[in-house]
Please model this.
Amino acid sequence: MRQLFQYLRTWVIVCLLCLVLGWTLPAQAATDIDAKLEKQVLEVIRNNPQFVIDALQEYQLTKQEKLQKVQQAFLDDLKTKPENIIGDSPTTGAVKSKTVLVEFSDFQCPYCAEVHKTLKSVVDKHKDNLTLVYKNFPLTGVHAEALPAAQAAWAAKQQGKFWEYHDALFENQKQLGETLYVDLAKKLNLNLVKFESDRKLAKTAVEKDLKLANELGIAGTPFLVINTDNYTGAVQASEIEGRLAKAS
Model:
């Protein structure tokens, strides 16, 4: 009986995927989906609603378990091997510290601009025992300039001016655009030829951060994760000082 249940559940999932593909593919491609298959799938759903519910619930459970494993691996590395998390990402504060704060941020996000002020103050106060790591998470679906801004900041990083450029982007958030990106490069005395070349190469690095954020199931920005002696996990900006106090 269990084998039959497993078979039917798998079959229902396959049929559902086929149906979803039929609904989401472009119109021309959708016409190639067998109408008979669609009818069969709908009939299966009507006649076996519990199988469909069970199959979807198991799928969601499996997906959630996988996400939790990825998140736990990230937290474990942040606690024991922070260099694995930091990678090539820009950092500020202590060159090497047991306490690491990872920020996933979007240069066009107004909430990120507010948190930026808090983090700047926190890092200035704890610059000898806190390392801040910046990870890009441009929400391109709602912020048209998030990716171009991230690419420009990455290009500035190649000339050792990431944080100056980073701060200027947040301070001029309402003016994000091509004119601002070039003007900031000039004000920071960047080599403009190299800056333009590096901007074209930046997408790969930004997408690496974006991939990590998606794998961790991060839904929005800003998203902060901290490791201290007694805590490793997500944290609100307003909680950081308290976490640092407990760690000292």
